[in-house]
Amino acid sequence: MGAGQQKIIIANWKMNKPDGALEEFFQTLDQEQTELVDLYLAPAFTMLPTVCAAANMRKFKVLAQNVHHQLQGAYTGEVSSLMLRELGVAGAIIGHSERRIHCHEDDELINAKLQTCIQQGLTPVLCVGETAAQRADFRAVLRQQTTLSGVDISKVVFAYEPVWAIGTGDTASDEHIHAVHAYLRSITATTARILYGGSVNANNARSLLNIAGVDGLLVGGASLVAASLLAICRATP
Ligand code: 13P
Asked: Does ligand 1 come within 6 angstroms of the Cβ of 221?
């Protein structure tokens, strides 16, 4: 995903519109050297065509927030990897905890989504992470969530998002993030790109990006304001 070993910053807008008009958002991004990071915007499906058109002329790329595991067929309300590829989308966030919790997505379904996504040449960003109740046992949770079959793991970007840190302002400690990233690398691949997500903002981005093993950030709320997304991009060491 992206050239070289630049840090990856993903803006997951979830079911929100960013502050202000989209064109203004893009213009703010234009003012800065966002080429120093691999920047991805992940808008809701309705905004994908506009954001993809803008990405053609700019330095960021586009991700979907979800994708179906089949390529086409009678799946009302769903969108496939094939459709995303045709639109110019670079990849998809898969297995976000909000989808695991609210849409009851399980590891088997997530595995199937990873397969079709990779088959279509898209980059999957696989979200993993423990809930508050699973905190003491995070290794077992992560092992289960990363036990994949028929998936070329070298094509997967991992995002460690402890569920208790999402939208709470309660960022995981540097020690915990370091330990988890090292563990994830040991059970995935030494070359895997592993991002951190969970209450990332303009103030904590630099120290998070400085933790050994953190290859980038998956940002929710703070990515809806262009100025704060820029500040996060600029925090790259
Ligand atoms: P917040 O940055 O709002 O905590 O959300 C994190 C997240 O879920 C990104 O996918």
From this structure: yes
- Residue from 98, 105, 130, 161 carrying the catalytic annotation: 161
Sign of the four-CA dihedral 221, 121, 102, 134: negative
Mutate to test the pocket of ligand 1, among 66, 126, 157, 200 (most ligand atoms within 8 A of CB): 200
Q: What are the backbone angles phi and psi of residue 9, rounded to the nearest 5°?
A: -120, 125
* Six token digits for residue 205: 């981005």
Q: Is the CB of 128 under 6 A from ligand 1?
A: no
User: 167 in ligand 1 pocket by Cβ < 6 Å?
Assistant: yes
Conformation bin of residue 186: beta by default, left when phi > 0, alpha when psi is -120 to 50: alpha
User: pLDDT tens digits, the chain, 237 residues: what are they?
Assistant: 544 589 999 999 999 999 989 999 999 988 776 678 999 999 999 999 999 999 988 889 999 999 999 999 999 999 999 999 999 999 999 999 999 999 999 999 999 999 999 999 999 999 999 999 999 999 999 999 999 999 999 999 999 999 999 999 999 899 999 999 999 999 898 889 999 999 999 999 999 999 999 999 999 999 999 999 999 999 987
